[in-house]
Amino acid sequence: MIQITFTYRCVQCGSTDIVRNGHNRCGQAQYHCHACGAYRVLPPAPFQSAPLRTLKETVLRAYKERASLRGLARVFNVCRQRIARWIVEKVRHLPPLRQTLAPAQPDDVLELDEMWTFVGRKANKRWLWTVMCRRTRQILAFAIGDHTQKTCQRLWARVPDAYRRCHSYSDFWKAYQALPHTTHQCVGKETGQTAHMERWYNTLRQRVGRVVRKTLSFSKSEAFHNMVVKWFIAEYNLDHVGPTGPSLTN
Ligand SMILES: [Zn+2]
After folding, report:
1. pTM for this entry
2. How far apart are the CA of 79 and the centre of ligand 1, in A?
3. What's the pLDDT band for 129 if we cut at 50, 70, 90?
């Protein structure tokens, strides 16, 4: 038999003279320290001696594997509101999307598509519009809004100039008809010209719980919804910068 004995210490003063002290309003186990008088949440054993940063990074990593806030709160014994604060902080420190992009090349091909997600209830649809560079697989721009030309235009305006001159493909949805006819072409799904963009939505749905169609971990807040999508896209781009690195001038 292998047995591991673990001694909890007070996070405030390091004393081992601590006793259980019920649960807080979020249902997390608490302790009371006899040495310094602190009342704190009891961190899960593996993270007891680790710095808070380690717990935070682990929780944020797990969140991007389709875990829900409530699920994470249960597993890591961290209050849901606190995890939400960590996410807000994380997204605030992300670079602007343009800075995550590799420089454009004249023969680059862009793929445009849109997918529906919802906030609060199924009827409250929020379309996610995206443009992908086929060569680097980076998401050049995204817009979240309704299914009309307005959101499509907003998306197009966010594409960096150098990429906007490239050839692009989308399906026949009427909102795309307003894009420049010289470089943009509407094609059927069967041509495979937007296949990479469509495939990326599967990746997104696989990783981000709140965009899965049949789920309970949907977004309750618009701002949070947009934030999580931005977070996923920025980090996805940084994983796909390629040999030339991100362009900071674009
Ligand atoms: Zn203490």
Report:
1. 0.72
2. 21
3. very high
